[in-house]
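RETRY 2/3 - previous attempt timed out on the joint model. Re-submitting the same 974-residue input unchanged.
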Amino acid sequence: MVLNYKLILKVDAAIGVLLAAAMIPSLIVSLLYNEIDVAISFAHCIVPMLFLGAFVVYKTKPTSSTLRMRDGFLIVASCWILASIFGAFPFLLSNSIPSFIDAFFETASGFSTTGASILTDIEALPKGILFWRSFTHWLGGMGILVFAIALLPALGIGGQRIIRAETPGPTLDKLSPKISDSARILYSMYLGMTVLEVILLCIGGVNLYDALIHTFGTVGTGGLSSYNNSIAHFDSIYVDIVITIFMILAGVNFNLYYLLLQRKIKDFFSDYELRGYFIIIAIATVLIAWNLWSTKTYDTIGESLRYSVFQAASITTTTGYSTTNFDLWPTFSKMVLFLLMFVGGCSSSTGGGVKVIRVLILLKLIRRGMYRKLHPRAVVPVKIQGKSIPSATVSGITSFAVLYVCLLLFGSLIISLENFDMLTSISSVAACLGNIGPGFELVGPSANYSAFSDFSKMFLSFYMLIGRLELFTIMLLFAKLFWNPDR
Amino acid sequence: MVLNYKLILKVDAAIGVLLAAAMIPSLIVSLLYNEIDVAISFAHCIVPMLFLGAFVVYKTKPTSSTLRMRDGFLIVASCWILASIFGAFPFLLSNSIPSFIDAFFETASGFSTTGASILTDIEALPKGILFWRSFTHWLGGMGILVFAIALLPALGIGGQRIIRAETPGPTLDKLSPKISDSARILYSMYLGMTVLEVILLCIGGVNLYDALIHTFGTVGTGGLSSYNNSIAHFDSIYVDIVITIFMILAGVNFNLYYLLLQRKIKDFFSDYELRGYFIIIAIATVLIAWNLWSTKTYDTIGESLRYSVFQAASITTTTGYSTTNFDLWPTFSKMVLFLLMFVGGCSSSTGGGVKVIRVLILLKLIRRGMYRKLHPRAVVPVKIQGKSIPSATVSGITSFAVLYVCLLLFGSLIISLENFDMLTSISSVAACLGNIGPGFELVGPSANYSAFSDFSKMFLSFYMLIGRLELFTIMLLFAKLFWNPDR
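RETRY 2/3 succeeded.
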């Protein structure tokens, strides 16, 4: 079975066209702020990408419109890698980030909604460039491909296969029999959430530009800010609350919002994963607040709660915004955040990480293991809300977990060659693989990734993409069995 | 199904008698070194334990001699906990370790062959006490229960059920149809290995006392030394080599030695786990040696190799001896050791940790996961040496791995309440759960566990026992389903 390279090329070219179109708002922002040089840089990206992309789309005639599983994986992986390459050009051409590797890191961080940055002084960058930087979060958040799914049918391609590789989390319920319809519904909800947050931030006195930047970072669970101090810059309880709520909302399974639209509110709140997600954030918040208050890190219980809920929500949803330098917190609070780095958002949300449902199912395996020690011959299915989980799903989740841990440990080993401290090495890899952004020590919330070598930056950029695409999509490309499927 | 409490009591009492008997050599050592006070302390432990134990064994008349699974788990768990309590009395009575919690920590560390210590000046302790401290390693190494299996048939109890809870690792091949025979064979091999190492160390100029102490620590993969500097005290390449070899031998599946006895040498070396074990130690040694040499930590490649192979073998086998303060090594070398902390020895060895065979099977799950992404409907068994692993075994291993990670993360959270640095918190828990001993930073090879609070010491003591007894044996006691099996 040969890969359908022509069709893959056609889709990639179409993504190029979309990417060029997606740069137009940033060009407009540049013009509004009188950044003519920056606007010209954007134009230098947009025009060739638009025409070359359109030309390739027009000229490429696939002999077959069949997309197999392997084609789907290659499309998703190639699109994200290409988007991170082409999306880096505005940084380069405007000379905002002169090194290609740095620009690639920043763009991969944007599209993968990680939020890690190599910039030492964010505020020195032009407004148009910072807008593009955050806009990649917004594009990446819902997935540039879920975005593209509305386009694919126009190319005469069914998108079913792609969404299987793309969707965060183990399952995607079909919202609607036609995949393009469900993409449109998801997209509308995402847009609605964006508009709502922008309005709420503006009401709180944030200017429109900042409101847009931070909304992109929130609903995409990204975490890039236009300020060196991240959300601490605003120093406003109102802004903290709005962003906390929207981070949490962005980490919820978007399929569930469809239940809300259908007014099935009871079904919404009885979702097993959603409950686990809320409980995890609540417990983490209480634990951290108690620790911060009892160690007198903050004077009042109210202040402790304010900082604990924001940071807990930020790390759990893998956003990565911060309202304080949590790297200076007592060890217990830091450890809670460290554990949250391995949870992540709900499946089918914009959040990264392992995903809540996987964590919950893995925890259930412990009880099954105990039961089997006492009853070795019993066959015990893993159940959630009374329904047995198919053993193939369970084994898929265990494979995912093992691969996640292996990637984490292997990555930490590679990054440890930098000879930074152990915690920097481990947490930088965890923060990139989990699409979180900040870690501890040298990559703490008040620091950045500028100290890493070019090799490490490339390595971590790929880790962001690997994490964002549910590990296997990219890791498969390194497997012999992907290229020799008949073996 | 009620637990057979009377029989459990009888076995526990028998273990008490054995423990009293096991203190006699230490008493003799005390007398030889003219430590009369210490000898009296031992006598104060031995006499009551011997008589009380024998009385309980004699008086307890179980109504049934049937041992169910649950009885077996309770026997194993209670024996190890009781041994760690009663084994602590010589430290207390001799006033060598005045605090009970400290003494319990030291004894649990001994019996679980962990090798973590709360002592700040080991060399200040009496010879008899240090002998007992290391002798607990030797007893624990092979398992005080495998020891006891020769005794159980005399009590009219079949030991089959117990060995299932006791054996390190997922499987124990039956060496012999009669369990008491196989216990005797294992015991003889263990004794032979001990004698051989003592002779080799003495040939190298080590005095008999030190040779015994360090042999107990080696063949039991324990790691307690009579010197503050551990094996670095001897500063002898010969001693390093002997101990390295015996650490590695102690980490080998003891069933395989039976193959050697039968002259099936080819079968021995073709064992999948053994090969993985050797390869892991070899790769780790080369990586560390390369790193140490290229960073000029040591002057010559030979010196780098000398220190890398010892430390790699010590951590992989979960012994914990050191010939240098590896906490001062460059980060990459430390990271290799950190990863080795999660490997451990072979199944059915005296080594702790996750065990090599489990790690290898977990790695195979990644490939299966990849295959299933491409062929979602395929049923793919996990194979080792051409044989399919039963899915129940695979699911047992994944449960184990999930529980291991959860215990590690939960433990790190609890220990982080001490407000030491993150790496101390994580590595102390990893070192105790994996029965290794030293970790990094405050629990590095040149440090000890004296800085921890009483609560943390108790917590870590239990973690040592949990790790030693393959997690489930003790964790089951905290599970409702253990006490309400009919639920």
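Confidence is low (pLDDT under 50) at residues 147-176 of chain B. Closing ticket.
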